[in-house]
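User: Last request for today: this protein with S-adenosyl-L-homocysteine, please.
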Amino acid sequence: MARTNLLGLDLKGLEAFFAEIGEKPFRARQLLQWIHQYRIVDFAEMTNLSKALRQKLTESAEIAPPEVLQEHVSKDGTRKWIIRLSCGNSIETVYIPEEGRGTLCVSSQVGCALACTFCSTAQQGFNRNLDASEIIGQLWLANEYLGKEPKGNRVVTNVVMMGMGEPLANYNNVVMAMNLMRDDLAYGISWRRVTLSTSGMVPMIDKLREDCHVSLAISLHAANDKLRSEIIPLNDKYPIAELLAACKRYVEGHQRRHITIEYVLLDGINDSVQDAKDLMRILKGLPTKINLIPFNPFPGTSYRCSSKTVISRFQKQLLDANFVATVRKTRGDDIVAACGQLAGEVQDRTRRTQRIVQMEALVAQ
Ligand code: SAH
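Assistant: Here's the final one, the structure of the complex with S-adenosyl-L-homocysteine:
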């Protein structure tokens, strides 16, 4: 019988596991701390469990984090870990240190099925969803690696689900992992500091509002449906008006909550004065912070990043109209770790047409 990997189970999942092996539910709390706070993977070292229980756990379970294949350190301090999965594919996780905080960018799928034209992950195709242990395992490994630093004070204070994949297309595993991020017995990161970014799977946004309140970021990137459908095919299914209505529902009844709007600036495509006006028009009334992202090129792309002048002009237009608008600093581009550059090693198991079908099946769930 395969042993259960306890790394990916949240409090409820662990309680169910212990019930199944005839043990008390409070054991789940002890295990969470051992696994995520002390990073102990050997049951024999869990000294507040009886010898008999340790033995039982060794027989029925394991704590198996994924394996780091390579670590790259950028000259700006950004780190990228290439993580090998048991299936032979690899994914990427990025740590971005800043004054007073450290952000971990976590992947949710091996590749991505959504086929956004400006994203390097999309060019890799889609292989499979990560399971919850592979998602939380990225945070586990980051803490392990950062903890080994000689200066030892780098920590993960924030998580963004902005790595490879569409997190809402792998809903249950992502929510399980985010529960662990937020649980005080595991990582204790407040919901404000856990951000999920989506290209706009509307029904799942509504579900997330009920199941796991975290900060929400939307990859909008265009202010009209014609252009958005061209660069984000999912827009055909969930056009802008529906997406923004879901955002409104997400913030309703929550004080001080806003939606982050991601907008990648593509030279000559979505960066005109009119584009900025259209953006402001459609976002009116929604509490937002707009994050302008300079496009990061990757091999084979024909897009170019808007010039510095155009980026500043676009931002100024928004600021002048009292929108909150920041320009995302490009980090880690010397180690190919910037937004949209994460590719890993993905064996594409789908053709593009199949991917759309697959995506629709997911959406219909
Ligand atoms: N699938 C999710 C998570 C990816 S998050 C989503 O679409 O939101 C990564 C962010 O980087 C998204 O906003 C994505 O649109 C953006 N991005 C993708 N490719 C990029 C590129 N080449 N340059 C800059 N940003 C990019």
